[in-house]
């Protein structure tokens, strides 16, 4: 009985021992298993840490620092450009003939004006007028046509409409018929009727004597305003028409092309009191001798002072044929004989500085 009981106890203990062994085996397996599993996990962690170490990328971060000088070069470039800006006035001075100084330019320009004053002692506006109103209307009509054509047209216009009030109330079609010979007659009709209305309504039918008031009139710009101020009111002004622009550039008085800038540049060379007569001298010379296409250089009284001498005909006999004289019966508008401009040998003196 004891043996049986012992056998039973042994078997029971064996059964108990078996699960215990299994538990220990499982524990040992569990201990071994995690170790085996942790190893790849650690490898993964180290593998994950390696790319993380690349994030600082000191080499890449230093690359933008190497490109930093590029913007510095761009900053230096404008400084070089601004340093070269003061060289502009030097070009203006070099544009004068033979490197002419400012003082020499002033002297030459004034001498040219004195010479022209002797050739055209009676230079005056070539538009016929009896009062400021007629002068402002005639000057507006002179655009894109000759003064002679305007003088042939205005007598009929002023006979029918003698005052601003009369012209302001005129029938546009009737005015157009009168102004047709001057060209652009529709636009000119609109301008002269418009300025007449402005004179009647704003200035009591009188032409104002101020530049700021004149330029407000329809069809009246600075050129027309200075013609009126200088010749109707005795107030100095420079008339920059096509002849004036051509000649002052040909004489190297200025390189400007804008009329307002030409007016300022030339005005700085002369006393203000000379401006009106200067305008007449230059315009008369441009119409009679210093033509646009073929100037009569061989018969020019200011040839020794002109840097453009030689652009036109230099032979005296051929140059004489290019001169334009006014019709007889207009005293004061005739030129001196061409021989008066020539030296003893029958030729004009060469320009200053010529060989």
Could you walk me through the main structural features you see in this protein, from its secondary elements to its overall organization?
By secondary structure, the protein is mainly α. The protein has a domain of 179 residues: Hypothetical protein, domain 2 (Endonuclease III, domain 1). 59% of the residues lie in helices and 0% in strands. It has 16 helices and no strands. Helix 6 runs antiparallel to helix 12, helix 9 crosses helix 10 and helix 13 packs across helix 15. The termini are far apart. The N terminus and C terminus are likely disordered.
CATH topology of the domain at 110-288: Endonuclease III, domain 1
What characterizes the major β-sheet?
none
Q: Stretches where pLDDT falls below 50 for ≥5 residues? A: 1-96, 327-355
Based on helices, strands and strand pairing, what is the structural class?
A: mainly alpha
How many H/I helical runs?
A: 16
Instruction: Tell the overall outline.
Output: globular
CATH class (first level) name of the domain at 110-288: Mainly Alpha
Summarize this entry quickly.
With 355 residues, this protein is mostly helical. The protein has helices at 2-54, 58-67, 69-83, 88-94, 102-119, 132-141, 147-160, 164-168, 172-179, 185-202, 211-214, 222-232, 242-250, 259-267, 275-288, 316-320.
Outline the secondary-structure elements.
Blueprint lengths: L1 H53 L3 H10 L1 H15 L4 H7 L7 H18 L12 H10 L5 H14 L3 H5 L3 H8 L5 H18 L8 H4 L7 H11 L9 H9 L8 H9 L7 H14 L27 H5 L35
């Amino acid at each position: 009985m004891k043996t049986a009981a012992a056998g039973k106890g042994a078997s029971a203990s064996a059964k108990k021992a078996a699960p215990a062994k299994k538990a220990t085996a499982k524990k040992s397996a569990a201990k071994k298993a995690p170790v085996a599993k942790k190893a790849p996990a650690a490898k993964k962690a180290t593998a994950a840490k390696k790319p993380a170490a690349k994030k600082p990328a000191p080499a890449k971060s230093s690359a933008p620092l190497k490109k930093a000088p590029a913007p510095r070069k761009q900053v230096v470039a404008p400084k070089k450009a601004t340093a070269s800006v003061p060289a502009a006035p030097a070009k203006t001075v070099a544009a004068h003939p033979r490197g002419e100084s400012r003082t020499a330019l002033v002297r030459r320009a004034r001498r040219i004006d004195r010479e022209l004053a002797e050739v055209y002692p009676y230079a005056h506006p070539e538009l016929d007028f009896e009062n400021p109103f007629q002068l402002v209307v005639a000057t507006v009509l002179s655009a894109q046509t000759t003064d002679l054509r305007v003088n042939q047209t205005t007598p009929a216009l002023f006979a029918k409409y003698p005052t601003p009030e009369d012209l302001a109330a005129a029938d546009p079609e009737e005015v157009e018929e009168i102004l047709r010979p001057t060209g652009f007659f529709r636009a000119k009709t609109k301008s002269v009727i418009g300025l007449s209305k402005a004179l009647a309504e704003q200035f009591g039918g009188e032409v104002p004597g101020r530049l700021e008031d004149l330029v407000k009139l329809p069809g009246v710009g600075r050129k027309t305003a200075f013609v009126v101020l200088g010749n109707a009111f005795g107030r100095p002004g420079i008339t920059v028409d096509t002849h004036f622009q051509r000649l002052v550039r040909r004489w190297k008085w200025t390189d400007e092309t804008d009329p307002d800038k030409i007016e300022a540049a030339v005005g700085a060379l002369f006393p203000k009191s000379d401006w009106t007569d200067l305008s007449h001298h230059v315009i008369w010379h441009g119409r009679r001798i210093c033509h646009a296409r073929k100037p009569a250089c061989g018969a020019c009284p200011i040839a020794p002072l002109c840097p453009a001498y030689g652009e036109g005909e230099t032979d005296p006999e051929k140059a004489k044929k290019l001169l334009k004289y006014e019709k007889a019966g207009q005293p004061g508008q005739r030129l001196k004989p061409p021989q008066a401009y020539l030296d003893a040998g029958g030729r004009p003196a060469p320009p200053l500085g010529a060989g």
